[in-house]
Design goal:
Distance between the termini: 8 Å
Shape: elongated
Number of helices: 4
Strand content: 35-45%
Structural class: mainly beta
Largest sheet: 10 strands, antiparallel
Number of strands: 21
Number of domains: 2
Radius of gyration: 21 Å
Order of helices and strands: HHEEEEEEEEEEEHEEEEEEEHEEE
């Protein structure tokens, strides 16, 4: 899972190195279409990032780089320069209208300071020497990629084969998996503020009493989910009211 999550930035770095042709600062070319906010197809977005207090937003596509300090005087738009490989990340540096901007993209988990929403990328900006930090990439990409197996459900640590699973289809916004007894399917909604899961339809197979109780607890928690978070091990946390939560780990897809 970790390898797939960190695939795009190394690819960008290797493409940048291949494009150098004797220049000590390598450029970049089009990366993979992995949907984590760094893809380039024509003039589509390479990077979209935002930060809070002060509020700012940065968008880079194949043609232009645009930075806005919301509520301020800075509104910068220039032709996209080739990025440089810096400290395991990518850096864009521009000067326009008396302002100098340096933006560095790192494949490092980032949490929105206002909503708590996790993002796959950390973005560091220096604007005329002022340090700004924000988040980039799409939160949905953190959910995608394979099956999540529940390791903890509220106070209970789960082991063995009979554990609930989750699989997020980010294109259809559909959640499927196993309750540990039955198969289930539900819609889900991911916004900038949180995550919610619709009513789950499931098969009706009977299982042992303890497994049925686990299923009921799992489905009740899913129905109340209002946000998700991740830790540094990229384990998924689903949060529900009353301090209910589950922890799941994504299985390797290799």
């Amino acid at each position: 899972m970790l390898a797939s999550r960190l695939f795009v930035l190394p690819l960008l770095l290797s493409l940048a190195a291949c494009a150098a042709s004797g220049d000590p600062e390598p450029g970049s070319s089009a990366p993979s279409a992995d949907p984590i906010g760094t893809e380039t197809r024509g003039a589509e977005t390479i990077l979209r990032a935002t930060g809070n207090e002060p509020f700012w937003q940065l968008q880079i596509d194949a043609d232009s780089l645009r930075f806005d300090m919301l509520g301020g005087d800075v509104d910068l738009e220039v032709t996209t320069p080739q990025p440089s490989a810096v400290g395991g990340g990518l850096n864009w540096r521009v000067s326009e209208g008396g302002s100098t901007l340096s933006a560095t993209l790192l494949e490092r988990l980032c949490k929105d300071t206002m909503t708590g929403m996790p993002h796959p990328q950390t973005v560091v900006v220096f604007l005329d020497g002022e340090y700004l930090q924000g988040c980039g990439g799409e939160p949905a990409s953190l959910l995608a990629g394979g099956e999540w197996v529940v390791e903890r459900l509220n106070v209970n640590t789960l082991r063995g084969e009979e554990r609930p699973t989750l699989r997020f289809d980010i294109d259809e916004q559909r959640l499927t998996g196993s309750t540990a007894c039955n198969r289930y399917m539900a819609s889900y909604t991911l916004t900038r503020e949180g995550l919610s899961v619709g009513h789950a339809a499931s098969t009706r197979r009977a299982c042992e009493q303890t497994v049925m109780e686990l299923e009921q607890e799992f489905l009740e928690l899913l129905a109340g989910v209002y946000r998700f978070s991740m830790d540094n091990e990229l384990r998924l946390y689903l949060h529900a009211p009353g301090d209910q939560y589950l922890i799941a780990r994504q299985q390797d897809t290799d």
